[in-house]
Amino acid sequence: MANYVYISKTGDAARNLAMDAWLLDNVRRGDRVLYFYVNAKAVIIGRHQNAWKECRLSAMERDGVQLVRRHTGGGAVYHDRGNLNFSFITSEKDYDIERQMRVITNAVRALGLEPELSGRNDVLIEGRKFSGNAYGLAKGNRSHHGTLLVNADLSVFGDYLNVSAAKMRAKGVESVRSRVCNLSEFKNDVTVDTMRELVISAFAAEFGKIHEYSFDETALSEIDARTMVMHSWEWVYGKTPEFDYTVDHRFSFGETQLHFKLKEGLIKTCRVYSDSLNTDLAPALERIFTGKRFSSADMIAALYEEDESITRSERDELTAYFEAYSPEKL
Fold this sequence. Notes:
The chain is α+β, with helices and mostly antiparallel strands.
């Protein structure tokens, strides 16, 4: 068996996750790969999550936070350059979660700290979580991927993620936030680079000699293709499960409600109620929005497909509304 390390050189979360998925599908039998990446500011949502529900999209757009939907399940998380991501990827036969977790805990012990495992997924210091772990399976290979909070900006987690009402009632916002910590709180000079080197050293000590992993041109081309898919609106928003959304706004032409039923990011049905004197407005909006993508560009373009039933002033007001309060900014 050969042991490999690969360190991604990009902060693009979509490409980093595309590379992670490619490795899971393609790692050779008998090889073990330890893959590292650091994302620029990004929110990563699970494969079956609703971006409009889980994320504060307006704040993310304002602050340049990337939205990425991963191929695997799980919840929404925030990443920045203070968060080190790692993946152990190998065949199912050679997968050993106890040894892999020992690599992580031994690396932290090298800082002079004493980590503890909590259940199957979390690693703690003094009862506070600094590492979460998840697991994947594809084509006879397994992956164990996780994060190490080194010096991430924990203060902004709540700016971009919506905590569910159930969690807020059960735990309270402060208790959810307070149980997460950075390693730098206990070792103030630790950096992401330092932590990565400690993990690599622990990996070599646990599994033996390591080599640098390399991708051939075919692999890079396939990763490019996967990255394009992960950047696409169809993947990020179009994979959203069914949900409903209502616009209720007073325009100069009247109080208007638009009820959208959405599936895979498309408006499957639209019902409009308005006290506008223009009796053609509501049926026209229902007609033009149905079947369109739930995005400001598509919805505004649809307004200009109707020449007779919607007046210019109505069109202008609706356009201004969807520019200011677009689905991308919810």
